[in-house]
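To whoever picks this up:

The parser on our side crashed when reading a file containing two proteins. I've narrowed it down to the boundary between the first structure block and the second sequence. Both blocks are reproduced below exactly, byte for byte. First block:
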Amino acid sequence: MGNKRVTIKDISTKLGVSYAIINRALNNKAGVSEEMKARILKTADELGYRVNKVAQSMARATLTIGVVIPSDWQEYYSVLRQGIDKEFDRLLDYNVESKYYIVDNIHSSRETVNTLKQCIEDGITGIILCDVFPTGLEKVMEELKSSNIPIVLIGGTQNIDAKCLCSVQVDAYRSGQMACEMMSFLTGSSEKEKDVVIFVGNKDNIEHRLKIDGFSDYAKNSNLNLIGIYETHDDDMIAHQLIKKIMGEVNDLDGIYLATANSASVCNVIENGGYNTKIISTDVYDKIAEYINKDVIQCTIFQDLERHGRSAVKALYEYIADQKEPEDKILITPQLIIKSNLDAYYK
């Protein structure tokens, strides 16, 4: 048939079967015998028939996907949103629209619950839930399930993971391992163990805990001595106070693994104090790039947040539109950024 697009009409002409029966077979609907369905699918394959997704999507009701995302820590969430927006742009012709719900305090159960209830009231088709930490969501998650509203979670929260369609996460354990291997290399081999510490946002966060585990497990067979794990709660002031205290108590701290992207205040203290402490950070934004170029940070573990956003929207859309079940966890493989390849990831 050359380059001409194969249509249902072509299959109908070939088999002498009505459009309605062919449509039911192609969409796996009832009312067609298994024998006839097999004949139709075989003929469609032989003719090179491909479903016109755009036409199919325009024939159904608009899919409205809600995105629940925090207003703070824009270095992190703005990049995540870029990926989400890019995937929605790709779906412009597929009768899909987005509706953003901004949460001012991601540690507030009440605000998150109220936001999710608003999604139900608004008749949202599905939800992208970005990195929330609070407990107390169990009841509203049941309400969402009863309303047949699937949720894709970006990040990992042990209290609600099982109630979501799937989660999109960085391979956090691998991130910790990579950080430890690089730290061992950067601090050099010697008989004396190298003292290192880890800064995380919150030990109760699954992702942060896995980074700790990955680093700690790898450190057992290295020259590193992990002397402390500190929570900053992604607060610059807390991070500043902690690193000042540590540098005042530890002689010649050899390395710091910043397992959270909120790390500028730690780098500032190390730079201003003239310490020869090796730093491995997480992700890349203005301040991280600045400190990499100044050799305050030796490398950073890139989590590809934009890909997180795109993957979440893609998984949710394919589930709603095509009934394609995603994996329970979509893991994004981290990458290593150093000064020589920084411009490939950060403009």
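<<boundary where parser fails>>
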Amino acid sequence: MKTNFLNLQLNSPLVLASGILGLTASSMKRVVDNSCGAVTTKSFNLEARKGHPNPSIVPFEHGLLNAVGLSNPGAEEAIKEIERFKQVSDAPVFASIFGRTIDEYGKVAEIAVKAKPHLIEVNVSCPNVRSEFGTPFGDVPEDTAAITRLVKQVAGDIPVSIKLGPHGPGIARMAKVCEENGADAITAINTVGPGMLIDINVQKPVLSNKTGGVSGPAILPIAVKSVYEVYKNVSIPIIGTGGVTHWQDAVQMILAGASLVSLGTAVYYEGIDVFNKINMGIQTYLEKFGYESIEDFRGGAH
């Protein structure tokens, strides 16, 4: 199950996605102790952000509706947790950053590199703050190109992955823009939407923000298709994320072209042991087909 990714050695191809259990060093270590290969911090920006008031997360039959609103303690506090995590674990840690403006991405990246994360994941595609910040930067090729160049310049030797959504002018095209402007990897996808659920008794939207990003099993087919399209269009590796709950889902992502598979909402459904379960399932798949590693079937659906 050992996996090489951008010169990093992971004990598993599974990664903790940004947003769940990525706020403190202790919670990230718990994930690694349960056979996760790498962890991603909760997305942070320059200054502390409260996010949206409750209710901000609502489960439904096929996933979660999330309008947390990118709450975080700010970059200076976030890197303290990265530094603490590195003291207690050898697993790679990815710093997830976002900004309100293009210039802010560069400023946040400057702070992030102080903690020397193993990768900087750049969130340009979060849909649940669309009404606050305007059109996501990840929907505009010129903005995405500028952010990629800026963060890559600041990051230096630290790899940069751009987190894209399935919206806008097309994720394959946007991935190519990222590659052409220096990105080392692509993370695909972010939550989908925004979406809405209505309380039929109160007769009002359930979320205080009214709309939020959709995650969980409902978006798996969109995520698999997105990874498949990105894999055809770029030569840089992909972190596949979105709707992965069971080992069969992770295998689909790898067959579509993912180098790593990221899990978030699955922790809500299956608990922290989900990483162990999926690892065992992938191992069984390897043995069934006589593969020595996931490299042997990555992109096999093509």
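After patching the parser it read the second block fine. The mean pLDDT is 94. The first strand starts at residue 3 and ends at 5.
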